[in-house]
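Olfactory receptor: structure, please.
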Amino acid sequence: MAKGNHTRIQEVWLAGLPSSEQSKILLFFILLTAYIIILIGNCLVIYLVLTRSILHHPMYIFLSSLAFSEIVFTTNLLPILLHALLNGGAAMNFTNCLAQYYLCASLGVAECFLLAVMSFDRYMAICNPLHYALVMNLKLCLELILCSWVGGFICMLATIVLICQLHFCGPKFIDHFFCDFAPLLELSCSDTSVVKMETTLCAFSVTIFPLGFVIGTYVCIILAILRIRTSTGRKKTFSTCSSHLFVVSTYYGSLIILYVVPLKGLTSTNHKILSLIYTVVTPLFNPIVYSLRNQDIKVGLKKLLSDIIH
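Here you go.
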């Protein structure tokens, strides 16, 4: 670390996404449409779970918590991205930049835990159906959701404290569409080796361990499904897990590539594209995938539309 007095930067400039004058308007409307769908889709999931008795089950309670997380997560990122697209970049107060990173990272970790909790729910429903109603009661569901959320914010507390202790003297330019970890450290004139090591260990723990748990539960689930005698029964049982598997694959895949085993030589553009997968694509497809693949949610939607029309 180069010791001495450093002037702490007060404001940063987010570059946003690379786009030409001709394409930025199109990209703006694509992302704006995606954001609106994310808000409407996830709000609809939460509303249906709260108001429809057919959805008052653990799987849907966890799904509504995941939907709320996606709403907060994307609202933390997409408005500033949309502003940056229209204006060729966006200025942000540095304190707000740190807050954006902490909220984004904490919610990302919380979602990793929620996805693991959802796999445990599917494991209990398929592998231990006789004990499912007794074990997966409302109290336990709410405790698991609370632990996921609190755990996410606590896990990232050490990282944000270490980052706040660094000296940030510029440059003020962040070649990204939000205040992510690596671009933030590029603004520091301190020795960042400690925070990098801590973050690598943390990222490994909060992605690999939950993912390992998910894989373990699904091995048990698949073995249980294979023991079902009829192909119709096997297909019906597996259909309750396929949506969750899709979300786990896309979400964990992009996180692991970006933060656990980052590829050398990954360009800034490629980094932004991978970031878009878990910041926009996954929140966009979550309510769509779960709605299309779940009969109970379809029934809830039909009843809601029927009530609106009549």
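Notes: The first strand starts at residue 11 and ends at 14.
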